[in-house]
């Protein structure tokens, strides 16, 4: 009992900030089972009101899809985050997406990553929902302690995670 009380905890906390401005919805409401059933990880979804995607954490860009609709970032604490813009947007082959970053670059919260033309996505009848998913949740023993709700602006705290 006393050992537990005085021992140092190996858990770390990491805050993840909103990569886009919009209205938050739970992953379970996303009309794609890959995300709604958390097949690739847990996180949150945002229905965007702006097309600017920024970094939600300090870390390194580890993946940028050739179609520019998704980006992977590994935080300094080791959390791997996928930001996926829209549903079925891979078919646009990069049309409507402008990247501001490349793989291997160090980013801080708020750094510009991608700009998306939301008007174009809507004209093509594509769902604009943007997903932030922690893809290595089991490997890093990540527990999401709190989720934001309602409307969020770029840079607002979105999630708080306990690691380890």
UniProtKB/TrEMBL annotation:
Look up the EC number in the record and give it.
Answer: 2.7.1.69
Q: Name one GO molecular function term.
A: kinase activity
* PROSITE patterns from the UniProt entry: PTS_EIIA_TYPE_1, PTS_EIIA_TYPE_1_HIS
Question: Could you tell me the keywords of this UniProt record?
Answer: Kinase, Phosphotransferase system, Sugar transport, Transferase, Transport
* Presence of keyword Transport: yes
Q: Where found in the cell?
A: Cytoplasm
User: Which BP terms does GO give this entry?
Assistant: phosphoenolpyruvate-dependent sugar phosphotransferase system
Gene Ontology cellular-component terms for this entry are: cytoplasm
Where the record annotates domain PTS EIIA type-1, the positions are 32-136
> From what superkingdom does this record's organism come?
Bacteria
The name on file for this protein is PTS system, glucose-specific IIA component
Q: Which organism is it from?
A: Caldibacillus thermoamylovorans
Origin organism lineage: Bacteria, Bacillati, Bacillota, Bacilli, Bacillales
